[in-house]
Every structure is written in C-alpha cells, then in structure tokens.
Write the structure tokens for this entry.
Amino acid sequence: MRRMNEAEVRAFLTFGTRTGKLGVTRLDGSPMVVPIWFEMDDDGTLLFTTWGESIKGKSLRRDGRVSLCVDEDTPPYAYVRVDGTTTLLEDRELLRTWAARIGGRYMGAERAAEYGARNGVEGELLVRITPTRIVAQAGIAD
C-alpha cells in the first residue's frame, strides 16, 4: 500500500464515473452516508448538487463539515477520502452550469443539458467542498 501524491489524487477523483460516498450528520447526531455524483473544479474543490430540504441539505445548513470517500472496487484497490468544509451556493446560473457538467460526466455529454435543466432548479443547492484533509491510498491489496 502506498500514499498517492497530489497529481494521482486529482487523476483518481476525475477518472470515469466513480461515485462519492458522502458522510453527513443527521439532526439526532447519527451518521448518514449516501452516494453522490460530483465534479472537481480547477482549484481542487469538489462540487455536487442536492435538494435543499433533503437530509443532506439540512445537515449541510447546520454543520458544513463533510467526509467524502471515493474508491476503486477492483484489485489492487484504492481510495481517496476528502474531509472538508462546504459552501452552499444558490446562484441559479452557476447551479445549472455545474449540474450540466456533473450530469455530463455521469450520463454522457449528450445528456448534460438535460441534467443541467433538471437539477438547476429552485430549491436545489450547489455544494462546494473545500478539502481540509485528504487521505489517499493505492495498491491496498499489493
């Protein structure tokens, strides 16, 4: 097993359609982990969308700290965990732009505009994760 360097982390997080598993805290203090689609900005922050009244949205309004894990589920296995703080953005144009970019990543460029329109609506939030700690391991089964 070895630690990934910064370039490897970026490549890992932007490769293909790996989903992130986002950890947040429910109102009663219990943890919740859900899969999300995400995209990385040029500055290394990660963005995703969520409904503002969802458990995720409510949790992020209360406490902007999150943990996101992205893994490679084939040997020799690898993962990147990003702990960070979030900024919630409600700018509709920015939301639509990123929703299209995220939708294009996971569903193909031909459907990007469809996902931008579907997820760029009132009530939806654009969430930006600013990493505070990154743990990245490759070759776990080596």
Q: What stands out?
A: The two ends are 6 Å apart (CA to CA). The chain has one domain: 2-138. The chain has a mean pLDDT of 96.
